[in-house]
Amino acid sequence: MPGWIASVLALLALPQYGLGALFVVSFISATLLPLGSEPALFGLLKLSPGMFWPAVLVATAGNTLGGVTNWWMGWGASRVADRYRHSRVHLRALDWLERLGPPACMLSWLPLVGDPLCAVAGWLRLPFWPCVAYMVVGKFLRYVCVTLLLLHVFPAQWGLWG
Question: pLDDT per residue over 14-29, tens digit each?
């Protein structure tokens, strides 16, 4: 491995930089931009195995705040945009979300549909704090499950980088 990569990885492994970078990546990955936060979380934990719970909590916080941003964007869009005709599939999805209410935000961790789900929850003006609470639960459980799975698939004694 080139020396500069090792230097960057060592710098990111420091809690004061690694957790901040993880927060930013987790936040951005929860917006509508296509970015995954799990590789950043996994990389930090491979370099600093003792940081499991702080890293999971920071990733959860960043990802939840990204979901909250989506909620607010949806809320704002509903105030500005004209109502337009939806296809039958969209109307059924909106009806499902309205019937399910804030608990639907627990699915905000799902790839492809989770981030827009938060925006649609805001668009429909579902209650803010219950939506945030369900986002936290769903995202936290995702990070715990995915991280534990990755740590058991790639145990520390095998090493990821060499």
Answer: 555 688 889 989 999 9
> For the chain, what is the mean pLDDT?
81
Largest Cα separation within the chain, whole Å, is 57
CA distance 110 to 161: 29
Torsion of Cα atoms, 50 then 54 then 57 then 59, to 10° = -80
Q: Quick one: tokens of 134?
A: 């369900």
Residues contacting residue 88 through CB under 8 Å, at least 6 positions apart: none
Looking at the structure of the chain, the number of domains it has is: 1
Q: Are 134 and 102 in contact (CB under 8 A)?
A: yes
In a domain, 83, yes or no: yes
* pTM over the 0.85 mark: no
Q: What angle do CA 123, 127, 128 make, to 5 degrees?
A: 85
Domain housing 98: 3-153
- Is residue 161 included in any domain, yes or no? no
- Is 33 domain-assigned? yes
Q: What percentage of the chain carries pLDDT values higher than 90?
A: 34
Tell whether 94 is covered by a domain: yes
**Angle value at C-alpha 108, between 107 and 112, nearest 5 degrees:** 100
Structure tokens at 159: 């090493």
